[in-house]
Amino acid sequence: MAAAVSMPSVSQPKSMKRPTHWSEEVEEAYRFQLAGYRDEIEYREVQRTDHIDRWPHNGFVKKLVRRDGCFYYYNKTRECPDKQINKTKLYAY
Predict the structure, then answer these.
(1) What ranges does the record give for the region Disordered, renumbered to this chain (predicted)?
(2) Which of 45, 39, 37 is nearest to 66 (CA)?
(3) What is residue 53's predicted lDDT score, i.e. its pLDDT?
(4) Helical packing angle, 24-34 and 40-47, nearest 10°
(5) Is the pLDDT of residue 18 over 80?
(6) Angle at 62 between CA 24 and CA 70, to 5 degrees
(7) Measured distance CA(64)–CA(36) in Å, rounded
(8) Using H for helix, E for strand and C for coil, what is the string for 13-74?
(9) What is the mean pLDDT of the chain?
(10) Which of 1, 3, 71 is nearest to 31 (CA)?
(11) Strand runs (DSSP E) across 6-93, as ranges?
(12) Quick one: DSSP state of residue 67?
C-alpha cells in the first residue's frame, strides 16, 4: 500500500510576473524572497505567525526569520538594487 501524501497548506499562486520598474510592491517581494519565501502569504503560513516587524514610517519589512531560523534585518530605505528588479517575482492568487 502506498502511504497517503499530504499536501502542504501553503496557498499556490495562479500566476507570476517579473517587474520592470521599482515599486513598493517589488521592494516587499524582494525582501521576502531574499529570506527564502515566495511572499508574505507563504511566510505567514510557514512561520505560523501574523506578526511581521515593519518600519513605522514607511511600512517596509524590518526583520524576517529565515527558513533556517536565522534573522534578516533590513534598512529603512530601499534595499532592492536596480539589477535585481527583473529577478524579483510578483505572484497573483
Answers:
(1) 1-23
(2) 37
(3) 94
(4) 40
(5) yes
(6) 125
(7) 10
(8) CCEEECCCCCCHHHHHHHHHHHCCCCCHHHHHHHHCCCCCEECCCCCCEEEEECCCCCEEEC
(9) 90
(10) 71
(11) 15-17, 53-54, 61-65, 71-73, 90-92
(12) T
Sheet holding 53-54, edge to edge: 53-54, 61-65, 71-73
| SS3 (DSSP) at 54 | strand
Residue type, 20: T
pLDDT at site 78: 95
CA distance 74 to 16: 25
Which of 48, 40, 31 lies closest to 91 in space, CA to CA? 40
pLDDT digits (tens, 9 = 90+) for 22-62: 999 999 999 999 999 999 999 999 999 999 999 999 999 99
Any bridge partners for residue 63, and if so which? 53, 73
